[in-house]
């Protein structure tokens, strides 16, 4: 209609006057037709102030601030005095787009024209200065105003409230009271905002009394703010009073009460309030659900077992309901849902949730992205975790640690190096979890050099005193057989947990240093730590290697006292230890008391009988085991085959080897094949051993070649011995025993040039023979003797005593065990 009227006026040559032009501009502006409004403005014959006011108001309405300001100054150039409405529109535009410089010019012109004393202009100037960040100039305008009504006070209060200057807000409110200015709704909202985070209950109650005095307690917005503030300050009873006094409660009131209980740590009550809210007919909004997620997450963090499981289910149910009601979840709510999927192991729901997060563009949120990576890692979806990780715009230490953990879990060691390179490039400082994962990856090569590099980095970051990380360091050094470094880490720790003691003892046990395990076990007790299941297992393993029966008796007593004898793992280890130490009666007694006799229990007992009573008795127990319905495993047969080998029963061993495959359907492992080769070699049947070797369906290992090399030396077979030596040293280049036996083989054949060449090569690659060690238990104490060490007075006397006993019994040292042939020659 506006365009039609405008076209008629132009067609009939009707002059557009000021009043008519003003009306047309307002009409076009109200419909967003700024182009037509500008056209009308250009066609007005003599634009008066009303026309300027209309066009400036049009540009203000449609947020065209730059053009508006140009029009304002063009009007000034035509010596027209801007109306109050023009000044207000221009100040409003400057406020919206933070045009502080132009706002100051208009303020200066307002002072010259006397308009700065106008209440509306003054409040607009105060608002403009405050929102443009110049609160001091806002205060200056306020101070020079001759008349200040509640609107002016509210504008200034709101300015200080936005600037979080709570002290000034409360001070201004006090001045208002003393100036007999009746506060309004906006006044109380600003003052209540000032109390946010301030626990001044006395002052707060005074404000509340004023709210009651002026009748604003019935206002839902103010009452909801009161509930929120009382709840946030921990005054839940006062919050309840206000809540119950409300004539018309709404979702905001309920949310304020629920969030207050969550902040106070009363998560269960918060969930009860949510349930009550729904029963009373109020539909929760996005904030209600967000609060519910926080409550579920907090409860899940505090509780365990079924309660945790149930709270995760509750959280997911809330999330599903949000989706059904088309309420878009924010990143905080989505984060809680992701954690619930992780806790429940709900991979399908997790993937659906991930899709929703991706669609709403939330995946790029660092915390949410990191938790998605963590969810996929924990649910063993490494490819999906990696896809999310590499899409993250900003990786942080949490996401990197989660991804490292996933790659370690997946045995993808090389990818761990990629993550570490990224962390170095992005200057992301690894935490204890990152370093633990990197150390586990570095230890897979069996070379301690990479672990040492990471250890240096850990020391630089002052994380070397972190107990969990120190335990990992000890463990990886032990796996790399670097017990010296492992013990250094143990020694420098200011505080050691029981786990630390267990880790170092397990490390020594795995590296066949039982003597050190017993020393540490004794030291641990003297420092007042009580051993646990892991401690006993490591110590029992040490007793096995040393044959320390007195220590076994002591540990057995401790196991009984701690009610661990019925534990299947500890019980099986006790059976194995007594059996290996030759105390078969005691092993059998523990075996009979076991509540659950599994294949491990039977195998330990059978191994003991095979070692000390021979293969035949061990076979009887094997068949008894079968009659009890327990299927033997490969390890069960290894001990019996070993017993046949030690007894020189080649035929019986060979028959049993065939029986193992045909009757028990056990596929032989390299250990079984090694037992057979050892059996042939011990019986002097080297040719049969060779035939058996060439018939093996699996590749030999170092043990295989060492057995054959030893037999080759016995029979002087230089060519085959050299072949075995090359195979053994290819698999393990630093095998000093292989060098020793091959040197003896050459020496027996008077091939001294080859002997010296081999010795030179051994020394070049530092293939040193470990010093020989022997242990003896006297009066419950284990004494260790190492070849070449300086003995103490006690150990020296003990050693002389043992040498005398050995000579009296006809023992003659075997010079063939000497490694350095130059000395022998």
What keyword list fits this structure?
two-stranded antiparallel sheet, 825 residues, single chain, disordered C terminus
Radius of gyration: 44 Å
Give the helix proportion (percent range).
over 70%
Gap between N and C termini, in Å? 123 Å
Structural class: mainly alpha
What is the topology, as strand order, of the major beta sheet? 1-2
Strand residues, percent: under 5%
- Count of runs of 4 or more consecutive helical residues: 47
Residue runs with pLDDT of under 50 for 5 or more positions? 300-309, 816-825
Shape: elongated
Q: Look at the structure and give the mean pLDDT.
A: 82
Sheet having the most strands: 2 strands, antiparallel
Extended strand count: 2
GO cellular component, one term: mitochondrion
Protein name: Pentatricopeptide repeat-containing protein
Family: Belongs to the PPR family. PCMP-E subfamily.
PPR repeats: 149-183, 219-249, 250-284, 396-430, 497-531, 567-597, 598-632, 669-699
Spell out the blueprint of helices and strands.
Layout: H1 2-11, H2 18-30, H3 34-43, H4 49-61, H5 65-77, H6 84-96, H7 100-113, H8 119-131, H9 135-144, H10 150-162, H11 166-178, H12 185-194, H13 201-213, H14 220-232, H15 236-245, H16 251-263, H17 267-279, H18 286-302, H19 305-324, H20 331-344, H21 347-359, H22 366-378, H23 382-391, H24 397-409, H25 413-425, H26 432-442, H27 449-460, H28 467-479, H29 483-492, H30 498-510, H31 514-526, H32 533-546, H33 549-561, H34 568-580, H35 584-593, H36 599-612, H37 615-627, H38 634-647, H39 650-662, H40 670-682, H41 686-695, H42 702-715, H43 718-731, H44 736-748, H45 752-764, E1 773-778, E2 781-786, H46 793-808, H47 821-824
Antiparallel strand pairs: 1-2
GO molecular function: RNA binding
PPR repeats: 149-183, 219-249, 250-284, 396-430, 497-531, 567-597, 598-632, 669-699
Family: Belongs to the PPR family. PCMP-E subfamily.
């Amino acid at each position: 209609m506006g365009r039609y009227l405008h076209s008629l006026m132009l067609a009939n040559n009707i002059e557009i006057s000021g009043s008519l032009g003003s009306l047309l501009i307002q009409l076009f502006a109200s419909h967003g037709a700024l182009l037509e409004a500008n056209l009308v403005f250009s066609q007005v014959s003599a634009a008066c102030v009303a026309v300027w006011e209309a066009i400036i108001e049009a540009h203000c309405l449609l947020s065209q601030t730059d053009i508006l300001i140009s029009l304002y100054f063009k009007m000034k150039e035509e010596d027209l005095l801007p109306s109050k409405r023009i000044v207000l529109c221009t100040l409003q535009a400057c406020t919206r787009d933070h045009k502080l410089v132009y706002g100051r010019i208009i303020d200066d012109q307002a002072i010259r024209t006397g308009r700065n004393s106008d209440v509306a202009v003054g409040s607009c100037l105060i608002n403009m200065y405050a929102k443009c960040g110049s609160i001091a100039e806002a205060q200056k305008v306020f101070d020079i105003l001759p008349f200040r009504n509640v609107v002016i006070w509210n504008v200034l209060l709101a300015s200080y409230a936005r600037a979080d200057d709570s002290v000034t807000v409360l001070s201004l409110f006090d001045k208002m009271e003393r100036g007999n200015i009746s506060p309004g709704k906006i006044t109380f909202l600003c003052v209540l905002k000032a109390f946010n985070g301030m626990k001044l209950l006395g002052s707060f109650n005074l404000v509340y009394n004023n709210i009651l005095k002026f009748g604003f307690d019935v206002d839902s917005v103010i009452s909801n703010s009161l509930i929120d503030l009382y709840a946030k300050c921990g005054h839940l009873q006062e919050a309840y009073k206000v809540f119950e006094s409300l004539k018309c409660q709404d979702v905001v009131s309920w949310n304020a009460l629920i969030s207050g209980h969550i902040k106070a740590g009363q998560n269960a009550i918060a969930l009860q309030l949510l349930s009550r809210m729904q029963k009373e007919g109020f539909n929760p909004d996005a904030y209600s659900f967000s609060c519910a997620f926080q409550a579920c997450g907090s409860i899940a963090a505090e509780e365990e077992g079924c309660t945790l499981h149930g709270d995760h289910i509750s959280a997911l149910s809330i999330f599903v309901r949000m989706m059904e009601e088309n309420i878009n979840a924010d990143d905080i709510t989505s984060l809680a849902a992701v954690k619930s999927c992780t806790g429940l192991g709900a991979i399908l729901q997790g993937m659906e949730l991930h899709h929703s997060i991706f669609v709403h563009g939330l995946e790029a949120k660092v915390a949410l992205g990191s938790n998605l990576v963590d969810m996929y890692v924990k649910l063993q979806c490494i490819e999906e975790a990696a896809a999310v990780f590499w899409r993250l715009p900003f990786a942080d230490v949490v996401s990197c640690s989660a991804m490292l953990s996933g790659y370690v879990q997946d045995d993808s060691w090389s990818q761990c190096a990629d993550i570490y390179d990224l962390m170095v490039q992005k200057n992301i400082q690894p935490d204890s979890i990152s370093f633990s994962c990197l150390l586990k990856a570095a230890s897979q090569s069996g070379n301690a050099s990479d672990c040492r590099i990471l250890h240096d980095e850990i020391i630089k970051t002052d994380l070397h005193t972190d107990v969990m990380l120190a335990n990992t360091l000890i463990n990886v050094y032990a796996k790399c057989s670097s017990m010296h470094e492992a013990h250094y880490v143990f020694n420098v720790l200011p505080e050691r947990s029981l786990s630390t003691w267990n880790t170092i003892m397990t490390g020594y046990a795995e590296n066949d240093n039982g003597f050190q395990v017993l020393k540490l076990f004794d030291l641990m007790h003297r420092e007042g730590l009580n051993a646990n299941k892991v401690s006993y297992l490591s110590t029992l393993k040490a007793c096995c290697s040393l044959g320390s029966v007195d220590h076994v008796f002591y540990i057995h007593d401790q196991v009984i006292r701690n009610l661990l004898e019925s534990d299947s793992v500890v019980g099986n280890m006790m059976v194995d230890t007594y059996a290996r130490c030759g105390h078969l009666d005691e092993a059998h007694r523990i075996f009979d008391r076991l509540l659950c006799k599994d294949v491990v229990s039977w195998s330990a007992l059978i191994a003991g009988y095979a070692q000390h009573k021979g293969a035949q008795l061990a076979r009887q127990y094997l068949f008894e085991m079968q009659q009890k319905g327990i299927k033997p495993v490969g390890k069960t047969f290894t001990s019996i085959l070993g017993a046949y080998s030690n007894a020189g029963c080649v035929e019986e061993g060979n028959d049993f080897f065939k029986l193992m495959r045909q009757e028990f359907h056990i596929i032989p492992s390299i250990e079984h094949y090694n037992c057979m080769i050892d059996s042939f070699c011990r019986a002097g049947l080297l040719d049969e051993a060779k035939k058996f070797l060439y018939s093996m369906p699996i590749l030999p290992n170092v043990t295989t070649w060492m057995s054959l090399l030893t037999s080759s030396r016995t029979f002087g077979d230089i060519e085959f011995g050299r072949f075995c030596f090359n195979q053994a040293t290819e698999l393990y280049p630093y095998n000093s025993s292989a060098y020793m036996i091959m040197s003896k083989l050459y020496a027996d054949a008077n091939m001294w040039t080859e002997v010296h060449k081999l010795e030179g090569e051994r020394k070049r690659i530092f293939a040193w023979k470990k010093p020989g060690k022997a242990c003896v238990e006297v009066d419950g104490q284990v004494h260790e003797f190492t070849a070449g060490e300086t003995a103490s007075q006690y150990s020296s006397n003990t050693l002389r005593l043992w040498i005398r006993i050995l000579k009296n019994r006809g023992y003659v040292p075997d010079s063939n065990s000497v490694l350095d042939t130059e000395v022998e020659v």
